[in-house]
Amino acid sequence: MPKARSNVSGFPRIGPQRELKMATEAYWAGQRPLDQLLETASGLRADNWKLQRAAGIDLIPSNDFSLYDQMLDMIALVGAVPERYGWDASSGDVDRDTYFAMARGRQEGGVDVTAMEMTKWFDSNYHYIVPELRKDTQFSFSSRKPLDEYEEAKALGIETKPVLIGPLSFLLLGKAAEGEFDRLQLLDSLVEVYARVLEELGRAGAEWVQIDEPVLVEDRTPAELEALERAYRRLGEVEGRPKILLNTYFDHVGEAFPVLAKLPVEGIGLDIVRGEQNLDLIRRHGWPQGKTLFAGVVSGRNVWINDLERSLGLLGELRTLAGDDLVVSTSCSLLHCPIDKRNEPNLDDEVLSWMSFAVQKLDEVAALTKALNEGEQAIAQALDSNRKALDDRSTSERTRNPAVRERMANISDADARRQSAFPQRRDAQHHRLGLPLFPTTTIGSFPQTQEIRQARARLRKGQIDEQQYLGLMRGEIERVIRLQEDIGLDVLVHGEPERNDMVQYFAEQMDGYVFTDNAWVQSYGSRYVRPPILFGDVSRRNAMTVEWAKYAQSLSERPVKGMLTGPVTMLMWSFVRDDQPRSETCRQLSLAIREEVSDLEAADVEIIQVDEPAIREGLPLRSDRWNEYLDWAVESFRLSTCSVRDDTQIQTHMCYSEFGDIMKQIQEMDADVLLIEAARSRMELLEDWKRTGYENEIGPGLYDIHSPRIPSTEEMAELLRLAAQVLEPEQLWVDPDCGLKTRRYEEVEPSLRNMVEAARQLREELVPAGR
Predict the structure, then answer these.
(1) What is the pLDDT of residue 657?
(2) Per the CB 3.0–4.6 Å rule, which of 183, 490, 610, 727 could disulfide with 439?
(3) How many other CB atoms sit within 10 Å of the CB of residue 153?
């Protein structure tokens, strides 16, 4: 019987102490040369490969590392660089300046180019750079990165499996840059670049190459599946190529399964954790002869330990169904997991025993493989400790709060409805607020300066006391209020200097969560987050923001928004318990936030913003489950916000997702004002509004805060004119795409002044015309 092998689809690239972030940002700031950034990157890759080899992983990934984003790497690899970056395909490989300009924009030395659009990677909080495609896009082999990193590992004596994003996923996750067209028209020319890469990898000695096609876990048309077959038929013909693992993840492959079975590839990767229906597909259709099953039984998306006994049962059945040539794998890349739970000395020991981070997941994959090859007795000790931890968690009183469960049982339909319809509320709010046409505001946060971060660190270390810290934060709030008044914003924010993160800040004031010191995961580029870990029933201990809001409002005659994070985003941007339905956990969060909304209103806060940037992210990848999710997601938002009077305005913010599919449900959320990202895509949402309409007020973001470039007044005024052609001017607010936390004041202040001037221009243009 062939021995089972172990596989990892990808590993975190950020470094255990965020070394990649520090090196990259130092390079961007001109504090380090490119050579030092590349040296840091090389060291991290070597450490990752050695770590996986030491854990006993047989198929170790390479080219899963990226300086910014793996899709951006593919854009460079196939030479799909938009014309505005001035890159000449005949000049050789895509250079670093062009690479980072595509990611962040560039505004220096007479060059002023916007960044490429960014959106969520399926239903995760990872953001990818969206390929821009035209009918005449020409592809070329323009980066040797997969080959260089394979050779780099080989020089260390480590055989690796290069990882590529597949051609179908590249095109379907891209966008038509000018006028919609069938992007699959570009498939044949794109596949020729992949064929060249496979040839080169084969010559270099690679045994396997992993080609990720995650789009196959979404609903796919017959034409798209025909394109899949055509692409891999061509790649299968490449002489001397490595074996191909066609890898999928995040859900089941559904209608694509019979097509996958016929493809000339040697391996197929299936997610058995989030795509349990994949097991049913194998039972129903049978496993294709001669193909190796890469069984994703160790989750790459959560922090909870694997149920080893259950996984061994699944693997045993899969071996019976699919044959002895079985590979034990992670369900997806471990990019979405923190690196090592041993870096958490301050985390509660009991809860920590229930957890597994990326390094521990390597051990789980290796242990399951060993048990398949040598019998369960070979991992008896691991099975015993695993069983004990699972039993402890299932019986722990810390995960259940009877008072919370009683409140949940008493929720009624009336709790999720506003007192009046929007037209009546709008009149009451306009009377109370007295704002001009095109009112200006921001999304919430202002730059988290070094002084703010130092103050927070000094408080943690006991170098200053709570009163000193509060004084520093109040001083920062007053500075931000005065700056906004000087800029001329109509609705102000307090800037959130006291908040470490828009989810963690609230989670720290709720029961049911625990927190980490070093459990960072990549969100985009050099932006990393530490998701809190939601392990038990949720409740609010005390008011969380009221005193800050009251203080900020005391500083200005203009309205200052109360700022909260919504229940769906609290859920999606945490590592969430898996021992009850997510809908139940979300409703618990809704009740906690509802209490805070009521307290803010009682404190005379006139506008309360409850942000839900993750609501589209949570949409299931298969449309047959959309309605169930959207029903409880919309209900959860309304449950959080519907306790207020008509004249209290509820705003919400959403960003960096494709919203066209859920415009009806966004309307049903019934926020008075929707502030939504729109600048990177140059108001593509206008087409959705033309199709579906939108009745409430809306602020389409006018400038991209994830780029350091400063947009001009005319640039933003033009976007606002486009919006005013589709929506009534009385509906429109003026705002940035997202919060300003990650930017510098040198960028923020001139951008906001230009934005305010754009609003003034539109008022002058439209008011005399009777608008």
Answers:
(1) 56
(2) 490
(3) 24
Cα–Cα distance measured from residue 69 to residue 76, given in angstroms and rounded to the nearest whole number? 11
Burial of 35 (0-12, 13-18, 19+ CB in 10 A): exposed
Residue 324: predicted pLDDT: 86
Q: Return the closest-CA partner of residue 446 out of 749, 179, 207, 687.
A: 749
Helices 466-487 and 546-554: angle between axes, nearest 10 degrees = 50
- What distance in Å separates the CA atoms of residue 369 and residue 326, rounded to the nearest whole number? 9
According to DSSP, the residues that pair with 270 across neighbouring strands are 295
| Residue scoring higher pLDDT (660 or 730) | 730
User: Phi and psi dihedrals of 210, rounded to 5?
Assistant: -100, 120
Contact 153, 159 (CB under 8 A): yes
d(CA 299, CA 333): 9
Structure tokens at 548: 């800050």
639 alpha carbon, distance to own chain's centre: 25
Kindly report, residue by residue over 355-394, the tens digit of the pLDDT: 999 999 999 999 999 999 999 999 999 999 999 999 999 9
What is the SS3 assignment for 57-114? CCEEEECCCCCCCHHHHHHHHCCCCCHHHCCCHHHCCCCHHHHHHHHHCEEECCEEEC
* Residues belonging to the active site: 706
Q: Is 696 within 8 Å of 670 (Cβ atoms)?
A: yes
Contact between 336 and 301 under an 8 Å Cβ cutoff? The reply is yes
CA–CA gap between residue 682 and residue 701 (Å, rounded) = 10
Written in H, E and C, the secondary structure of 291-356 is CEEEEEEECCCCCECCCHHHHHHHHHHHHHHHCCCEEEEECCCHHHCCCCHHHCCCCCHHHHCCEC
Q: Which of 665, 685, 688 is nearest to 676 (CA)?
A: 685
- Residue 333 near residue 11, CB atoms below 8 Å: yes
Give the span between the Cα atoms of 140 and 91, in whole angstroms.
11
d(CA 418, CA 643): 7
CA distances from 80 to 74, 77, 133, 147 (A): 8, 8, 8, 19
Distance separating alpha carbons of residues 573 and 124, to the nearest angstrom: 9
Q: Which residues pair with 163 in a beta bridge?
A: 210
Contact yes or no for 52/369 (Cβ under 8 A) = no
Instruction: Provide the H-helix boundaries in 491-541.
Output: 504-507
Q: Give yes or no for a contact between 665 and 694, defined as CB atoms under 8 angstroms apart.
A: no
| Residue count of the chain | 771
* pTM of the complete model: 0.89
Query: What number is the average pLDDT over the span 482-498?
Result: 97
Is-contact 185 133, C-beta < 8 A?
Answer: no
Question: Which amino acid belongs to residue 337?
Answer: C
Tokens 């919060």, residue? 739
Cα(532)–Cα(500) distance, integer angstroms: 12
Q: Mean pLDDT, the chain, as a whole number?
A: 94
User: How far apart (Å, rounded) are the C-alpha atoms in residues 202 and 392?
Assistant: 49
Do 707 and 684 touch, CB atoms closer than 8 A?
Answer: no
Q: Name which of 4, 2, 1 is nearest 372 in CA terms.
A: 4
Which token pair is 424? 């009546």
* 3-state DSSP assignment of residue 564: strand
pLDDT, tens only, 74-89: 999 999 999 999 999 8
pLDDT at 771 over 50: no
pLDDT at 179: 80
List CB contacts of 167: < 8 A, sequence separation 6 or more.
Answer: 187, 190, 191, 194, 231
C-alpha 243/C-alpha 325 separation (Å) is: 14
Kindly indicate the confidence band of residue 656, based on its pLDDT and cuts at 50, 70 and 90: low
Helix and strand element counts for the chain (H, E): 27, 24
In 10 A of CB 264, how many CB atoms?
A: 14
Q: In this structure, are residues 669 and 637 in contact, taking their beta carbons and an 8 Å threshold?
A: yes
Could you tell me where the DSSP H helices lie in 461-532? 466-487, 504-507
